[in-house]
Amino acid sequence: MIQGQQPRIAETTSMPKGICKLCQKTKPLENSHLIPRAMYQRIRDENVRASWSNPDPIHVGKTVTAHTSRQVTDYVLCTACEDLFNKKGETWMIQQVWRSTAFPLLDRLNLAHPQFEFQDALGYSGTAVGIDTDKLGYFALSVFWRAGVHIWSVGFGQKSTKLDLGIAEKDIRLFLLSQGPIPQTIALIATVCTDQESMGVIVLAQREMEKRRSPLV
Description:
- The chain is of the alpha+beta class and 217 residues long.
- It is built from 5 helices and 10 strands.
- It is globular and about 45 Å long.
């Protein structure tokens, strides 16, 4: 459970029934989030603390970039699979993101020696600096997978574009269910923002460039 959230109670009488896209069983479906609900709340709380005139997170879309309180949701996952995502990645991840007094993930990197140095970035081994790469990787793959198996209404009259996960989609799904290893065809690179402006922005999972044959993961 994410700290500060109320316990999840399955109200099956008000939840539509359908096929959960993760376990593929017919069950009552939760109003699932593409980006965890707690992430929106954390950003908004920090923006309020910083006295922003509009504390809502900034949504970066294909044609519109704007503050919005709208969260990207749809009936996609059952309660059990929502809880699995929560326990195996989301709870940990929400403790690593920026807040006004600290940015735990960045703070850890600032104390470590980079493994690679590029012109505009430093590269680190997550394992070497003590980051729980299992939880980081699980969280990241869960978001990419959600963006690859469902078309989401992202606001401002826009729909998400499905990420083409190709033949890796089934293996990712089994990994997320703890029924298989992480696919060997996948490499995950996490970018940690160092500028204050980017820390209050939510960017949905998308292709890095339209010409890529596969999504950047």
